[in-house]
Each structure stands twice: as C-alpha cells, then as structure tokens.
Amino acid sequence: MSLLHSPAERQRRISEIAHRIWESEGRPTGQARRHWQMAEKLVQAEERQAALKKPADEKPSVPPKHNP
Fold first, then answer.
1. Which residue intervals make up region (Disordered) (predicted)?
2. pLDDT tens across 10-67, in order?
C-alpha cells in the first residue's frame, strides 16, 4: 500500500488522534501506549478508506476519444 501522507504528516495525525482519545477518556495516566496504538489503527483505517476511494474519485485528465 502506498503512503497517502508523508511520514511526518502520518505521525502528526496519530498524535492528534491519540490526544483526543486521551482527553475523551478523562486524561488517564499510564495509557499513552494504548492510546497511540488505537490512533495508529484509526489512521490505518483512514488510509485504507482513502486508497479505496481514490481511483473512483479521480477523473481522467483527458476525455476519452469517441470514434464516430
């Protein structure tokens, strides 16, 4: 699977999601690894979804030729 984000963007996204999970759970201590792993799984799911959508969403840059 090709990366849809640069490694830095992917890390930032994981960090952002892990932080949101931490906050949503009441900011518990000792759960950073679990939150990070959950966020990684969510980012992987986002990437898979984007990869599935991308070919169908892309439009050809040149219209197909019609042979009369």
1. 47-68
2. 999 999 999 999 999 999 999 999 999 999 999 999 999 988 886 555 565 666 666 6
Q: Look at phi and psi of residue 27 and say left if phi exceeds 0, alpha if psi is from -120 to 50, else beta.
A: left
The answer, as to whether pTM is greater than 0.85, is no
Half-sphere exposure of 38 (CA within 13 A, CB side): 14
Q: What is the CB-side half-sphere exposure of residue 48 using CA atoms within 13 A?
A: 6
Q: At what angle do helices 7-24 and 32-57 cross, to 10 degrees?
A: 130
